[in-house]
Amino acid sequence: MLNGDMLSTGSVVIDWESEELVHLLEQLSSKGDREKCSYLLEILNTLWDTCFSDKVTGYCCDVSGERKPFKSSLISMLHNFRWINSSIDNELQFPQRCLSRL
After folding, report:
1. For 22, 30, 37, 56, which has the most beta carbons within 10 A of its beta carbon?
2. pLDDT at residue 3 above 70?
3. What are the distances in angstroms from CA 100 to CA 57, 90, 96?
4. Cα 45 vs. chain centroid, distance in angstroms?
């Protein structure tokens, strides 16, 4: 996540976020819809390398051109919801508890 001390006058932030994906995760997580969460994971896994892998890291570019990396909004968003199925307790879990890629 972007740190406030990274920003200075003239800084440019390069980050990716999706209000639609946030809304979808909120809905699936709050309803505990395990089937649709599994389907979402399947879709993200299929599309990850071609559509999402370049969005894992955000950058703050200062006026000198230096790019400082930070955890992107995409990763923060995925980490903020219980949406990964667990076969251990049949409950939705936070991704970082179950997946090494996230």
Report:
1. 37
2. no
3. 16, 19, 7
4. 13
| Angular region, 67: left φ>0, alpha ψ -120 to 50, beta rest | beta
Sign of CA dihedral 87, 89, 92, 94: negative
Q: Which of 78, 77, 58 is nearest to 16 (CA)?
A: 58
Query: How confident is the model over 89-101, as pLDDT tens digits?
Result: 889 999 987 765 5
Element (H, E) at 23: helix 19-31
Residue 30 has pLDDT above 80, yes or no: yes
Separation of alpha carbons 97 and 102, rounded Å: 9
Phi then psi for residue 83, to 5 deg, are -145, 5
pLDDT at 58 over 80: yes
Token duo for residue 55? 């969005």
Determine which helix (DSSP H) or strand (DSSP E) holds 36, and give its type and residue range: helix 34-47
Q: 61: helix, coil or strand?
A: strand
